[in-house]
Design brief:
Layout lengths: L2 H13 L11 E5 L2 E4 L4 E4 L2 H4 L8 H11 L12 H12 L5 E5 L2 H18 L7 E5 L8 H6 L3 H4 L9 E4 L4 H7 L4 E6 L15 H12 L2 E5 L23 E4 L10 E5 L1 H4 L15 H14 L4 H19 L6 E7 L2 E6 L4 H9 L2 E2 L1 E3 L3 E4 L7 H18 L2
Parallel strand pairs: 3-13, 5-6, 5-7, 7-8, 8-9
Antiparallel strand pairs: 1-2, 2-3, 4-10, 9-10, 11-12, 12-15, 14-15
Length: 400
Amino acid sequence: MTTETMDFISSNKEYVFNTYGRSPIMLVEGKGAHVKDSAGKEYLDFVGGLAACPLGHAHPVLVKAICEQAGKLIHVSNLFHIQPQIELARLLTENSFADKAFFCNSGAEANEGAIKLSRKFFHDRGEHERYHIITMKNSFHGRTLATLAATGQTKYRDGFEPHTQGFSHVPFGDYESLERSINPETAAIMIEPIQGEGGIQIPPPEYLLKVRKLCDDKGILLILDEVQTGMGRTGKLFAYENFGIEPDIMTLAKGLAGGVPIGALLATDRVADSFKPGNHATTFGGNPLSSAAGVAVLTEILSPGFLDRVRIMSGYLRSRLEDVAPKYSVVRLVRGMGLMQAIELNIPGADLVTMMRNSGVLVNCTSDTVIRFLPPLIISGQEIEEMITILEASLAKIME
């Protein structure tokens, strides 16, 4: 580590809130699926900005869109019509279940908007008692007070009591528990199609179909949190397409603008019409710069052959992880969908993350024992092989 890097890291501790357990490197440059630190060391990036960089780093289409928009207009506020925002909304709605889009700055804000919209929907119908939202244990929906209450992991909520009221949590995939939790106050069920921060948990077959039918039968709204699973991550543009359902409300962020901060709340007209001027707003959401970036990313993902290639690379990554797993007793299982894969260990995963980083591959650990692989969607077979080689060497070393 260079003296300059050490100085910067020391300055970080002095000037920046201590809210992250950061790796002891400073990334300064990237291209494709590779990043470089301040000492010039190169890494293969299987973190992908936590699924926020679907096109990798310095993608020419995204760079061009950002530079051109920055040279014209960066921000004006939503007091005015914004051309790139309208174009992004059109692309999203024409390629999804939704009729309308609202733009914000993050996944947590998108989920806050979804919570507000579901309550307003029933308020407008005179059903003022319907505010209760059922979410899943092990879920993650954000770090604002309401989205913390929605999150089904106590470790994120501890220390922030009293918790926002109106939420209950049931086991992910347990349909009977979900059905029993519905009461006359229930407005919505909020669910991640695949739990990301919860360790890449996939729902049982037919589960989401049954949840959709339950919502229809009970007159409840279905909210899908696709902050991590959206934008091609599962091999489809949106994860819900893999399960044969459509939500009433969906939230997006992370990969939507390739790393430029943006979030989106999508809904059918029936639900979206509950928001009127003054009900919900944001200063920066969907500004010209972030929306132009979103248009570039979405246009690229929708281009012929892009998602076909994602599915091919997804299958290859999964097969290679399944080749590795039986060789090492510390690996319990492989699970995931698309380019959202994981290996679960029977030991804490932090040391494996460090070993792989030292060998030139970036991965991250979630739920203490789950190594998560979220490469850019433009990852190649050769780059997957490079990662697998280092993964195997690191697993062998950790078992010595």
